Amino acid sequence: MSLKDKWTFQRLSDALFSPKANGIDTKIEEIKQKLPTPVFWLLGKTQAGKTSLIRAITGNNAAEIGNGFQPCTKRSQFYDFPSANHPLIRFLDTRGLGEIAYDPKEDLAWCAKQAHLLVVVMQALDMNQHEIVGAVLAIHKEHPDWQIVVLQTSLHSGYPGYTNQHIKPYPYRQTPFPSSVPHELAQALLHQRDWFKGVPVHFVPVDFTLPEDGFDLANYGLDVLWDVIETALPKSVLGLLRASEQHNELLGFHAQEAHPHIIGYALVNMGAGAIPLAGLPLVFGVQAKLIHSIASIYNLELTSRMFAEFATLVGTGIGAGILGRELIKMIPVYGWAVAGLYSGAMTYALGQSFCVYLNNVKRGALPTHEELKQTYNHAFVHARQFLKNKDK
Questions:
Q1: Are 135 and 97 in contact (CB under 8 A)?
Q2: Is 29 helix (H, G, I), strand (E, B) or coil?
Q3: What is the CATH number of the domain that holds 202?
Q4: Higher pLDDT, 390 or 46
Q5: Per-residue confidence (pLDDT) for residue 69, from 0 to 100
């Protein structure tokens, strides 16, 4: 490990085990308040698939989702992920559509200040959607610039006979649909689309089932939905919620629990790193809070010996990046933005690397230096590219 790396990890170790930065929690909260939290406004009848959509995007199970909704208006409620205290994404669910005639005007005034994306959820073969369509048209009239995504769910209800095989490759990106799509299902999907003529809508047929339902894919069409979301929300933080191929090895239980925390603290350090004269203590303090959180999730006591071991394995090159960030920050405006970008990306990469390290610790076999460096480098590139494009 180079002298720069030793200096960097010593400062981080001091923040972990001998914290001196006053008001670090307050600073973190101040920065978090300035970060955008994407809000998905969900419209759909009961049993249309709204909970399944949330489960597919967040990875939380249905029970956690059901217990996590909190009222916010007379007819609406929020579901915050991963928690109400530190949400990375919020789902706004308007209740009662279809069962009782619904006039969206009462909620519009409030929701217009909250929502970033309108997501309409309807079962593909359900032709009784008058209230839903009327609400969408009213919302579009009031807010013509809003992005609208219509999910057409439960596709398997239109498959002939019994089958647990979805149509591959995914056939719904083109119209007319290819012959692989059953005629009845194709007609139903197109009929629903006719209801929204003149409204710029992204249509995404999906089928979000549970593994025990026996279908070959539990979240059929999820990749297509992510593509639409990331196009419709260019300023969101959602890109990092979507697991990349190089992080598939991290998708164990503990890593899934840690991932939202890594994203959150990375975004905080993106904000902290861009603040002129904020200095390193705040950045190290945020990283220390992240490492403490990850260790707690893995049910492991964080010791100075454990951290020193991790620092030795992953160290090469990180110190140079930290010091380089501080030099860049001396360049007004442009330098501040670049410094924030590097701070966020480094925090994300550090968290991902620490997950790999702890995963191996729990299995009784330490990762190699090359394994950790590869994880760090891949995560850094992934986060830097996303954060670089986040505000375009």
A1: yes
A2: helix
A3: 3.40.50.300
A4: 46
A5: 78
Residue 147 in tokens = 């992005």
Structure-block tokens of residue 53: 């959509």
Count Cβ neighbours within 10 Å for each residue of 177-191 and write b for 16 or more, e otherwise.
Answer: beeebbeebbebbee
pLDDT averaged over the chain?
75
Domain count for the chain, please give it. 2
DSSP 139-196: HHHH-TTSEEEEEEE-GGGGSSSS-----SS--TTSSSPPTTS-HHHHHHHHHHHHTT
Query: Looking at the structure, do residues 75 and 149 belong to the same domain, yes or no?
Result: yes
Q: What confidence tens digit (pLDDT) does each residue in 77-121 have?
A: 888 877 776 677 788 887 665 555 656 566 666 766 777 789 999
Instruction: Write the DSSP string, 218-260.
Output: TEETHHHHHHHHHHH-TTSSGGGTS--GGGGGG-SHHHHHHHH
Structure tokens at 9: 């990890």
* Residues 343-382 pLDDT 10s: 778 888 888 888 888 888 877 777 888 888 888 888 877 7
Instruction: Give the span between the Cα atoms of 314 and 358, in whole angstroms.
Output: 13
276: CB partners within 8 A, 6+ apart: 329, 332, 336
Using the 3D structure, point to which of 216, 236, 256 is the last residue of a domain.
236
186 and 51: one domain? yes
What pLDDT is attached to residue 245?
Answer: 40
Which DSSP letter does residue 368 get?
A: P
In which domain, by residue range, is 314 found? 3-34+241-389
